[in-house]
Prior knowledge:
By secondary structure, the chain is α+β, with helices and mostly antiparallel strands.
Amino acid sequence: MRLWAGMLNNAIDATDQKILALLQEDARISNVDLAKAVGLSPSPCLSRVRALEEAGFIRRYVTLLDPQRVGLTVSVFIQVTLEKQIEPALEHFERAIRARPEVMECYLMTGEADYLLRVVVPDLPALEHFILNFLSRVPGVGNIKSSFALKQVKYQTALPLQGAEDGKRKMGGRGRTRTARTRTRR
């Protein structure tokens, strides 16, 4: 697999950026349509997509479901404060949270709470069960505060990939724009 030199330094060019934006919009786009949209022939386009995958810019492909249609009508944000903010307590809490499918997101926070969770459940009894039979029983949990989402005003999964003035964007870390191809082996 070929990786562009720029990708090795965490930088991508405008074409790679267009590829990523289009794949975020529709991961099922055919390579032929993707190539046409970014102005490449199919073979180089597929090589770029594979290089972006290998370099870690593309983590995985998913299908987004409508929570309402699948019966997950209650969305709750839960702030959790631990009794002690020591590494073993943090690791234990995070391990327990990762195992729960109703926890859609979990962030270690600064401020009043240690963690912010986004939880989806079908109804209030399911939320009560989650809090009483799981969350409050995780060792080290000191305080739990919940806020219900009344309406989703904005939700997006696509990251904002606006380009810099010259059409090139550095994607984290240090690096240069693409100038040469290098071969790497996995």
